[in-house]
Amino acid sequence: MLQHQESMGAAAFALTDAARLLRSEIDRSVMESGIELTPGAIRTLLLIQQFDGVRQSVLAERMGVEPMTVTAYLDRLEARGLIERRVDPADRRAKVVTVTAQTEEVFQAVRPLLAKAYERAMSGIEPMARSVIETSLERMRHNLSDA
């Protein structure tokens, strides 16, 4: 049993460390690319695109940052015409956020950077193992997001 617990701890540490390193790789690539957005702003845009019409509060929760941090990102993104904030029809006190058509230009610049970082992270891992990793990580995210 102890060996199993040590294995779980090692796996959790490896997953956390790999995520940190991948994020650093992406952040470095973005900073070197000349894209005039911070890595945090790009992460914000990607999440808004994924969860179109997301509330600002939910966005902060999904990003694991304070609402004030998200508000600062959103202010800058809105000033550049990359997002729109609207009153949530279900709750007039809340705002929902959507990307604009101008965001596609940013995504076209970012996609190759993400693909390169992903390929570096997955280098030497066979296609079948990649599939297992991707499916397993999606399951883990699902399991933990339900908690």
UniProtKB/TrEMBL annotation:
Gene Ontology biological-process entries: response to stress
Pfam family, one: MarR
Record bears the keyword Cytoplasm: no
Source organism superkingdom: Bacteria
UniProt keyword annotation of Acetylation present: no
UniProt entry keywords in alphabetical sequence: DNA-binding, Transcription, Transcription regulation
HTH marR-type domain boundaries: 8-142
Signal peptide positions (record): none
Example GO molecular function: DNA-binding transcription factor activity
The name this protein goes by in its record: Transcriptional regulator, MarR family
Source organism of the structure: Consotaella salsifontis
